[in-house]
Amino acid sequence: MNADTGPSTSEPPAPEPAAPQPATPEPASGGAPHVPAVLSALTLLIGFQLLGTLLVDLTQLPVPAAVVGLVLLLALGAWSPKLVRRVQPAADPLLKHLQLLFVPPGVAVLTQVPTILDAAAPLALAVLGSFTGALVIAGVVLQKLLQRRPRP
User: Where is composition skewed (Pro residues) in this entry (predicted)?
Assistant: First the structure.
């Protein structure tokens, strides 16, 4: 019998059982587990929409809450480019498939065809009037800008 290794036998020693692996990897610093960038970005986007909802409910603004959240995101994104980089992993795929977000409003329009036909004349007048107004204003602004431009 060897004092350093124990009893001498011809069989190799049994391997030690492997330690169980954690389900989620822990960061080296011992902090919280890693959150994927897309999940973090989606959480930020939903948080801004929730903030918009809260502001609309508190102030009774006649503006959709999602629009208020988007304006807040735009304002803070212009102030902090770091926020834009944090939201980008979720924003890029959403923008890539933006056409899918128009399906529910398109279905809603199709379900309201009788109402739209009843109001066809006022709707046509509003669309034609706003188009004409915007075209005239754009033309006037362009003419004023061209008059201010020095001639070559």
Answer: 10-25
Residue 48 CB burial class (10 angstroms; 0-12, 13-18, ≥19)? buried
pTM for the predicted model, two decimal places: 0.49
Give the pLDDT confidence of 15-37 residue by residue, as tens digits. 665 655 555 555 555 555 667 88
Q: How confident is the model at residue 14 (pLDDT cuts 50, 70, 90)?
A: low
Domain ranges of the chain: 36-98, 110-152
Over the chain, what is the mean pLDDT? 82
Q: How far apart, in whole angstroms, are the C-alpha atoms of residue 84 and residue 135?
A: 34
The residue to which tokens 């389900």 are assigned: 23
**Hunting for tokens 């009788």 — which residue is that?**
114
Q: What share of residues in the chain are helix, strand, coil (percent, to 5)?
A: 70, 0, 30
Rounded Cα distance between 15 and 10, Å, is 15
Token pair for 38: 């897309």
CA 102, 105, 109: angle at the middle one, nearest 5? 130
What letter represents residue 99's amino acid?
Q
Do the beta carbons of residue 85 and residue 41 sit within 8 Å? no
